[in-house]
Amino acid sequence: MRAEERAQTSGFIDVNKPSGMSSAAAVSKVRRASGQACGHMGTLDPLASGVLPVAVGNASRLFHYLLDKQKMYLARFRFGIETDTLDVCGEVLRSGLPVPDEGTLRAALPAFVGDIEQVPPAYSAKSVNGVRAYRLARQGKAVELAPRRVRIEGIEWCGQTGEDEFSFRIACGGGTYIRALGRDIAAACGTVAAMSSLVREQSGVFSLADAVAPDALTADNWRTFLIPPETAFSMPELRVAGDEARRLGFGQRLPFAGAAGEYKLWLDGAFYGIALAENGVLRAKVKLI
Q: Phi, psi at residue 160, to the nearest 5°?
């Protein structure tokens, strides 16, 4: 297969994962339709819906470059109820606690904007001595997770959606647990909360408006939804042709007078991957074709 043909099978598909489906199941639908190896960029819990970027083929090698992209969520929390999973799918631990009013909630929000310390939920994929936290929690074992610093860009009050339920739009960096944010906002109001709904509206360049339902993908149409890998992240570009392109493609290094750093690399007009320039030398670092 020629490089141009291989490149057409590598990229991203912006999947709109429905609530009730696991992220792994959504990826499996993309894998079956495309016939390519696939992986998702940022897990969504089964309860959650919305944007799930799926890397198709060698685009998964760009995972590192998409990790810290800003995300946007529309979340609903029920106040006065506490569960072991911090969402309404878990076992109820306490209920009937106070439900804060709008004024109390609005007053609590500014303290959670910026760089904050957040303790991940016990039911999460965080690793504890090599074991996923949720596996230990399911076994009834105590799970102690260290707080981690996350970035909350903003929290927008979106209104009351039920007797004890309120909605918020949250812009945040990677690694943020929205369930834990609801827990902590409730604690600041002197009560407890469980997440009742979560929609991821944006993840980096991927948006809900452009997302496709996993069941809509087929062997005949999946390429229609394939997003070129070079459009998914920002980086200076470098175009190389002729003998120098051939040498880079074969793993050789070239003298380089430009600025040190990483570049999107095109060889003879085809997107190749990422090049690294350091100490006056250029080499291909990540190969996508």
A: -90, 130
What CATH number matches the domain at 3-68+205-231, 1.20.1340.10, 3.30.2350.10, 3.90.226.10, 1.10.1470.10? 3.30.2350.10
For 128-141, the pLDDT digits (tens) are 556 555 565 565 66
Residue 15: per-residue pLDDT: 97
Q: How crowded is residue 229: how many other Cβ atoms within 10 Å of its Cβ?
A: 27
Element spanning 186, H or E:
helix 178-188
Q: Could you tell me the residue ranges of all domains in the chain?
A: 3-68+205-231, 71-203, 237-287
Catalytic residue among 45, 87, 164, 184: 45
Q: Is 14 a catalytic residue?
A: no
Q: For the domain covering 71-203, report its CATH number.
A: 3.30.2350.10
CATH code for the structural domain at 237-287: 2.30.130
3-state secondary structure of 103: helix
Q: Which amino acid is at 280?
A: G
Mean per-residue pLDDT for 147-175?
Answer: 96
**Over residues 228-247, mean pLDDT:** 94
CA of 11: how far to CAs of 55, 62, 225, 266, 274, in Å?
6, 10, 10, 15, 14
